[in-house]
Design brief:
Structural class of chain A: mainly alpha
Mean pLDDT of chain B: 86
Structural class of chain B: mainly alpha
Distance between the termini of chain A: 54 Å
Strand content of chain A: under 5%
Oligomer: heterodimer
Shape of chain B: globular
Shape of chain A: elongated
Number of helices of chain B: 6
Radius of gyration of chain A: 17 Å
Distance between the termini of chain B: 57 Å
Number of domains of chain A: 1
Mean pLDDT of chain A: 88
Strand content of chain B: under 5%
Low-confidence stretches of chain B: none
CATH class of chain A: Mainly Alpha
Helix content of chain B: over 70%
CATH architecture of chain A: Orthogonal Bundle
Number of strands of chain B: 0
Low-confidence stretches of chain A: none
Order of helices and strands of chain A: HHH
């Protein structure tokens, strides 16, 4: 059996890469992809925790996270399309309507 | 054998995650993320969560990322000049944030107590279905309402007005 710690290290690295990617990109689509990566890393932690504790709670929670992530992707991409239609750009540095 | 599979899948997922975070073009990022999600699904299956592994491939790699690819194609971003990553100071700041998070995680793992490695739980479709429709019935039904609201909201947001 693989120790649970190894799963946790992998998911921590995935989360770290996703978080750095969010800071790194200016393109809204790439930022969304990195957010999906972070959600997935958290799911891996939940599954590893579920195995470590020995019940299904973590896996049920991971399934709910997947559903919420799907909803988030649908709404986020719709906002992205509306933004591109109205302002002709999805560069996050150009979006300043809510500033101040 | 099991550890070979684990380290292979872990390596694939981390390398593909690096491609996602570093690629200039979102199309390549989305394709790399599909491979990364399949590798993570393999990790799920390896730790006994077989139903979740199937859901991961069907819903995430199969549906969500295909929607991403379709949106990328719909937007037609070829003419956009904003595909450069952040330049100069901001780029180094992002790197610095990453290194600092890595240090924090090192500290967190240093103080981690040794966790038990049970293999008594198997997340098969039957077990998960039983669990979700008894103990987690209310959250499960709430996600149905959430996803309906999200879909109605998404169609309203993306409409041509």
């Amino acid at each position: 059996m693989i120790p649970v710690q190894h799963y946790l290290v992998v998911s921590a690295l995935l989360f770290l890469i996703g978080a750095t990617g969010v800071f790194f990109h200016r393109n809204l689509v790439s930022i969304f992809l990195c957010v999906e990566l972070m959600l997935n890393a958290v799911n891996l932690t939940l599954v590893a925790g579920s195995r470590s504790v020995g019940n299904l709670e973590g896996q049920a929670l991971a399934l709910l996270v997947i559903v919420v992530a799907a909803a988030e992707a649908a709404v986020g991409l719709a906002i992205l399309i509306a933004l591109h239609r109205k302002r002709e750009t999805i560069n996050v540095d150009d979006q300043n309507l809510l500033r101040y | 054998m099991e550890s070979v599979v684990f380290y292979f899948l872990a390596g694939v997922s981390i390398i593909m995650a690096l491609v996602v975070a570093g690629s200039r073009r979102p199309t390549y990022g989305a394709l790399a993320l599909i491979v990364c999600f399949c590798a993570v699904a393999g990790l799920y299956a390896l730790s006994g969560a077989t139903f979740l592994a199937a859901v991961q491939i069907i819903v995430y790699a199969g549906a969500v990322l295909v929607v991403f690819l379709i949106v990328i194609m719909l937007l037609d971003l070829r003419g956009e000049t904003s595909f450069k990553e952040r330049t100069g100071a901001l780029r180094w700041a992002a790197m610095l944030v990453g290194v600092m998070l890595l240090g924090l995680m090192g500290i967190a793992f240093d103080g981690l107590p040794s966790l038990p490695t049970d293999e008594g739980v198997a997340g098969t479709a039957a077990a998960m279905g039983n669990f979700l429709l008894t103990r987690y019935l209310v959250p499960f039904e709430a996600t149905a309402i959430l996803i309906l609201a999200a879909l109605v909201g998404a169609t309203w947001l993306a409409r041509r007005s």
